Amino acid sequence: MSFLRNCASNFFMTGEELLEQLLGSFQSSYDIERKRRMGGEIFDAYASFRAASAKYVLIERAELWRAECFEHVLFCVAQTELTPEDIERFRHTMLTYMEPKLVRHEEKYPPKDHMYTYMTMIYICESGVSKEAKKRICSFRYVKNYMFTIRGYSEARILVFDLKSRIIFGNRAAGKLVKGYKKSGILTRRNGE
């Protein structure tokens, strides 16, 4: 029986292989850093994205409106079981570093044309997720509006790839991400495919 289990584990990708595949898909649109220290924690990778849209009349100086959208993604490959303490460490990093420094740039509000910022945590769990951690992830919620959304909002998303159970799940804000990755079949592919 252990032989079959070893064959099955070799048949599918490791956490590092999945991280490389995810970073490869992010590479064309995101700026990526490896081993990023943020808020006292070290993450396996960090990806940032910025998109700007504007509407103007005749010439660019006659701008009617502008909107800027951002995403900051942290990646963590966990060799041990994911616990509630891991989720609390992300919450702490988000509240003490990501939101004040990356979203608001240490000002009272984000810049004038800010529309939204997603703060996304992606866990790749090789040894599974504890029941309590899964419960905390599914109930995790953070949304902050700035000036009644005149300066936009920020929202936290948590996405989990549980390699042990071969499932993908996340909090409510990450629903579209979960659906997209499930549809892609990323956890059912063999190494090298």
Topology:
Blueprint: H1 2-11, H2 15-26, E1 31-38, E2 41-56, E3 63-78, H3 84-103, E4 114-125, H4 131-139, E5 143-145, E6 153-162, E7 167-170, H5 175-184
Parallel strand pairs: 3-4, 4-6
Antiparallel strand pairs: 1-2, 2-3, 5-6, 6-7
Account of the protein in words:
- With 193 residues, the chain is an alpha/beta fold.
- It is 32% helix and 36% strand.
- The chain contains 5 helices and 7 strands, in the order H-H-E-E-E-H-E-H-E-E-E-H.
- Strands 1, 2, 3, 4, 5, 6 and 7 form a 7-stranded mixed beta sheet that branches.
- Helix 3 packs parallel to helix 4 (131-139).
- Residues 1-10 have low confidence and may be disordered.
- Termini separation (Å)? 26 Å
Give the H and E element order: HHEEEHEHEEEH
How many E-type strands?
Answer: 7
**Beta-strand fraction estimate:** 35-45%
Helix content: 25-40%
Structural class, by secondary structure, is alpha/beta
Number of DSSP helical runs: 5
**Average predicted local confidence, pLDDT:** 90
- Sheet having the most strands: 7 strands, mixed
Structural shape: globular
